[in-house]
Structure formats: structure tokens, C-alpha cells
Automatic annotation (TrEMBL):
Gene3D superfamilies: TolB, C-terminal domain (2.120.10.30). It comes from the Bacteria. It holds the Pfam family SGL. InterPro entries: 6-blade_b-propeller_TolB-like (IPR011042), SGL (IPR013658), SMP-30 (IPR005511), SMP-30/CGR1_Lactonase (IPR051262). The active site is at D232. It comes from Rhizobium metallidurans. This is Gluconolactonase.
């Protein structure tokens, strides 16, 4: 694939982030809807979800792909906490769970104010150990990615789980369908996608919030919009550029919200994460496949 076919360069700043000799590699194909990639540098592998097939997959360099867990309870988003443990959003269980080193599953959240969550979607962990996750209704809208059910929560919220007490609190309640989320590299802002246009006319944008007192979100503001499809999952590099999923590939936004370029992907992209030993390889889940491409920037992800 030529560089013109691979990239849509909108701003010279994008040229400094891409390698001219790099190519988009398809690492695996055979999913129904690939989602939730997370890199394990200590194990040199990537985990990701194949939601409708109810499994978590694992890819190892030079070792290919295999099934990590099946059934998965329709796991969607994944991340790691600061101890390196896998934290997952389960559509099937309508809960957020943690996988312990011995394989046991610990439930971190499944209810708010006595009512079941909708279907936790994406999750991130802050350096203080707090866990932040989105709770749209996608996993209960049909039996394809979970179990069809009526929502018990009146709104589609974003939640925070306190690292010390385990207390769950809603930190944002005005989204149509909150989806991907990520902290800025300095953790002073939290960015949250609203993919409500998948079922409504609007929106298809990412909003930014200031994080106050390590637990509250203030100063909600528009950051960017996706012009093809909806924003699902996204991650930041160390320079504060935001790399987001879209229908036509991966969109890269500068810290000022300007779309500076796209990586064109043959299938609709759901999520991205940085990985590899130097965190300079962007792993991309896209409909049926797992892709990867090397960049000249590094991901702002821990551990």
C-alpha cells in the first residue's frame, strides 16, 4: 500500500508522527466485532475482545493469535490497573471486573444506587488507582453483544470507582451514549466520546473535562468531532495527540483539537492502543481484524 493510500495528511504535524516505511499489518482476522485492545509489556502480548463470539483473544509477536478466555461474558473494553491486573467491562454481566493473578474474577461494580448498570463499555485507571468507566446501553439493546434487557439506570453515565473504598459515583450524567475515554498524559483532563449518533442524529464528538480534587469533572467542553462514523475508543501519545477510532480508519487530533491526519484502515475501527516494547506500535481493532502500525511517537499509557 502506497503512502497516499495509507495516510490522509491534513497538517504537517502529522508527518512528524508517521514513519514513511511503516506499513499497516493485519495480524489476525476472524472476529465478529473486535474491541478493547490492551498491551501487556511484561508478557509481550496483546489482549483484545471479540464481543459477539464471547471471547478474549491474545496475540503474541512471532506466536500468532489464540483464545485467552472463552466464554468471556461478552467483555468489551479492557485496561490494566497500576498493579498490572486486567480490568474489563462485561456486557453480559453488566459489570466491571478485575482478573486476579491466580485467575479469579473480582467484581468491582455492577450496580449504582441499587440498580443494575446498563452495559459497561470502556475503562481507564488513573495513577491514584481510581477506575473510571462508561456505561452506555449497547450491550442490552439486543442479544448480539450481550443479553437484551431494559435499562434500569435513567441515564447513560460515566462512573468513578474509588481505589480505597470501592465507592461508585457518577461523574457525568448528560451523555447520550458515553463510549471511549482516556486521560490526558498529565491526567489533568479526562476526554470522553459520545457515540450517540449511532442511534440518534447527534452527537459524534469527544468532550474534554478538567479533573478537580482527583474525583470530579468540571468545565465540560467540545474537543473534536469524527467526520466518518462515530468516536469509539481512543488513546493519547506522549505529546498529547489523540488517536481515535472512526469508520474510515484512525483519526489523529493535535492537542488543540485540529484533525491533522488519518491512517486509512479497510474496516471500521473500534479501538486503538499503543504497545510494543517501546510503546511506538499502534494496535487497531477493526470489525473482524486486528491491525498494527509503527509510528514515530510513543503512547502515554501505563503500566
Amino acid at each position: 500500500m502506497s503512502q497516499d493510500a495509507l495516510y490522509d495528511i491534513r497538517d504537517d504535524r502529522f508527518n512528524r508522527l508517521i514513519a514513511g516505511s511503516a506499513r499497516l499489518e493485519e495480524l489476525y482476522s476472524g472476529c465478529r466485532w473486535a474491541e478493547g485492545p490492551v498491551w501487556f509489556s511484561d508478557l509481550n502480548c496483546l489482549l483484545w475482545s471479540d464481543i459477539p463470539n464471547e471471547r478474549i483473544m491474545r496475540w503474541v509477536p512471532d506466536g500468532g493469535a489464540s483464545v485467552f478466555r472463552s466464554p468471556s461474558n461478552y467483555v468489551n473494553g479492557n485496561t490494566r490497573d497500576r498493579q498490572g491486573r486486567l480490568v474489563s467491562c462485561e456486557h453480559g454481566g453488566r459489570r466491571v471486573t478485575r482478573t486476579e493473578p491466580d485467575g479469579r474474577i473480582t467484581v468491582l461494580a455492577d450496580r449504582y444506587k441499587g440498580k443494575r448498570l446498563n452495559s459497561p463499555n470502556d475503562v481507564v485507571v488513573r495513577s491514584d488507582g481510581s477506575i473510571w468507566f462508561t456505561d452506555p446501553s449497547y450491550g442490552i439493546m439486543s442479544d448480539y453483544e450481550g443479553h437484551k434487557a431494559e435499562p434500569e439506570q435513567e441515564t447513560r453515565n460515566v462512573y468513578r470507582i474509588d481505589a480505597g473504598t470501592g465507592e461508585i459515583e457518577a461523574v457525568a450524567t448528560d451523555f447520550i451514549q458515553p463510549n471511549g475515554l482516556a486521560f490526558s498524559p498529565d491526567e489533568k483532563q479526562l476526554y470522553i466520546a459520545d457515540s450517540g449518533s449511532s442511534n440518534h442524529e447527534v452527537p459524534r464528538h469527544i468532550r474534554a473535562f478538567d479533573v478537580v480534587d482527583d474525583r470530579k469533572l468540571t468545565n465540560s467542553r467540545y474537543f473534536c468531532s469524527i467526520d466518518k462514523g462515530v468516536p469509539d475508543g481512543f488513546r493519547f501519545d506522549v505529546a498529547g495527540n489523540l488517536w481515535s477510532s472512526a469508520a474510515d480508519g484512525v483519526h489523529c487530533f493535535a492537542p488543540d483539537g485540529t484533525l491533522i491526519g488519518k491512517i486509512k484502515v479497510p474496516q471500521t475501527v473500534s479501538n486503538v492502543t499503543f504497545g510494543g516494547q517501546k510503546k511506538n506500535r499502534l494496535f487497531i481493532t477493526a470489525t473482524q481484524s486486528l491491525y498494527a502500525i509503527y509510528l514515530t511517537t510513543n503512547g502515554a499509557q501505563y503500566p
